[in-house]
Amino acid sequence: MFDLILTQTLNGLASASSLFLVASGLSIIFGVTRIVNFAHGSLYMLGAYIAWTLVSRFGPADALGFWGGVVLAALLVGMIGVVIEVLILRRIYQAPELFQLLATFGVVLMLQDLTLATWGAEDKLGPRAPGFKSFVILFGNRFPTYELFLIAVGPLVLLVLWLLFQKTRWGTLVRAATQDREMVGALGVNQRLLFTSVFFFGAMLAGLGGALQLPREAVNLHMDLAMISEAFVVVVVGGLGSVTGAYLAAILIGILHAFGILIFPKITLVLVFLVMAVVLVVKPYGLMGKAPVGHARGHGPAEPLLLPADNLTKLAGLIGLAVLALAPLVAPDHILLTLTELVIFALFAASLHFMMGPGGMASFGHAAYFGLGAYGAALAVKWLGAPMEPALLFAPFLAGIAGVVFGWFCVRLSGVYLAMLTLAFAQIAWATAFQWVEVTGGDNGILGVWPSSWAASKFAFYYLALIICAASILALRLTIFSPLGYALRAARDNPLRSEAIGIDVMRIQWIAFIVAAFAAGIAGALFAFFKGSVFPTYMAIPRSVDALLMVLLGGVQTVSGPIVGAFAFAGLSEQLMKATMYWRFVLGFSIVLLVIAFPRGLVGASLLGLERWRGRPEAAAKPVLATEAGR
Amino acid sequence: MSVVMTPSQVATAVDASAPVLVVRDLQKSFGGVRAVDGVSFSVEAGTMLALIGPNGAGKTTCFNMLNGQLKPDKGEVVLAGRPITGIKPRAVWRMGVGRTFQITATFTSMTVRENIQMALISHAGEIFSPFGRARDKYREAADALLGQVGMESQADRACGVLAYGDLKRVELAVALANQPKLLLMDEPTAGMAPRERIELMALTAEIAAAKGIAVLFTEHDMDVVFTHSDSVIVLDRGRLIAHGTAEQVRHDPNVRAVYLGSGATSGGH
Questions:
Q1: Residue A377 predicted with pLDDT over 90
Q2: Phi then psi for A416, rounded to 5 degrees?
Q3: Cβ contacts (< 8 Å) between B126 and chain A: which residues?
Q4: Which CATH code fits A334-578?
């Protein structure tokens, strides 16, 4: 028993090292640039791939070849980080943080396809590290020496980082910038150089983390998202910006994984979630984190005025609805299928917009609720033998209940912290669907989720979806203009003032979270019956990002934006997928371009253009404050 | 008249004609430093009490213990005979305390009128209602409040585009929406032009007198303090060093010493 505990502890510590390298890089970059680099997992993956290539070329048996390859790979990844920073991030430091996150996700997509194109889809098996081929006997157990080496890497890097930050001028500047970026700028420090060097350093750490994994696991294309969600958990638990916190959290998570696999193999991720939940309840900003100074809730740019739709907008909405209602009379079947999907996605986007726009809470894991709606419907059909109607009714409640639980934690945080937590929760939902094979069918999903016979035709199901989605979107819209919606907007605009006039900010946001989850659940349930099956991918990160893209494409501060965005995005991505095998690259590239060109979204940008064209000086001079209405 | 009392005096002061706000022996330390040390005072209906003192005197700490943002280590805050010590800001508001902030806090995505409507909706306990249009609720009441502060002509403008002085007036109207017994104003005239300051405080005094609202405000501008306060209390290093009318405080040797002989009338620092 004792040696088992020991072995698992050592295993946990060994896996914690790479996690720490990635998370600390993420943390340092965030500290200085305030950018949460979604692509950090991709840099980790690149580190592994590049190291694989270099080590294979230099000769894996040769110590110099191996270690040279690892170090060179880390440096190259650092350079890739510099390229990303100079070409993309430098242009968006002033953009809203959500757009920054999105741009880095665009980079994730691009790097995914670049990696696929360069190295192919097959896993790459790495060599053993020369000089570390043997085992050590510890308490009668064989333990690979490379694991011991990895265990030492963690504290070693921590020490190096500490020395770097305490003893060098560069480190002092990094710490100063982490505390007060503007002040450092005011003191005449070359910020560009500082930011770029920090990005190089953080990227290099991620690359090193990936390269060091080479002897431990096969290099594959899923390393990026698997790592980034874990790194987010580590950073949230440890405290954003704290390297020591990242180390403690990495060890905690690593050990938890090692023992979790032993004791509760099915729910390792749920365990991680529980620990994270406990930490966040006790210390909302993580083990070593401090409450962000000066950018507390609501201290963002002034939110634009939101007005109810004018007659022209209402007319446009009615015409749009009429076109959708009449479309089946002329549209061929395949168009009808596309339209059904678009209508469902419009509701999905509108549900995210509800919490993101008026609620000011950006979710990076909204697919969880969409997926739970879909699984709710599928499980009701599969295990309870329910027909479509009760399943459709039941499903959103599953999503809503998840919203109650997850939302309770999430509303305690704000901004990027909240976004990361929503992502972590979504990963837990995804992992549950993926791991709990007996109930959910795992990767194979649940098949045979078909509509009742009256709704089985494409024609009938389209109308079913259209009616439910249009009604739900309308209900969300009415809520935005109801007292509840106003209180929600008040809480977002100015939490201090809200509390001072008796508004319970957290409770209002919690309600909004639940409403958004419920509405996403409706969309998910419809989607399950539309496709006839559900899969864990319904809850995966890319689907959450789809929803974000729809909302941001349309413009988050407009009520109609998400609907326009959903149609624009879903139409675009379908064409892309047909047109090229590397659609991810094109999509990622478009996201990056979009963020750089239209930081206010399509509807936002066109409204701005309209106001300028009408020549209203006040509106044109203060676009942020007065132009975007609820159109 | 607002007066400063010793704890024993306060004990006898609670009766029918009790002051709106009674503060007894308030105390708060931060890491061993006593930011507020045994402060007692009271404010009566319809009067304006100014809380002044040099930077670091404990004004803000004291204020934040009254409005619920900070929990006192010791002492008691009583509003109209009911203890409100250590309760949350939103609960303090429900008990009948309106407040304005040093840096104006309004809802920028709403019009001026909607800002007031929001406060009225909350006062009516309807913030959780998903039904009806918020824009149509309490419109007349909101316009009436805006009329009181002279902002009715700008009711449909976005709060984000207002001039700073106008924003302060909107905030005052918001603070009046729950028919408060007590108004807490943290640096109400900070960042305003001198004429605007006088206008805003004259307006506040007028409303306070008319509605019987007790007003407690912190202030740096001594002109404002001496023109618009019924009485003044002076804090220094967490302790209450003087109280009385503006005239009394002006000639108080302790106060003069604290302000380093710079002359209490020269506008503070």
A1: yes
A2: -65, -30
A3: 483
A4: 1.10.3470
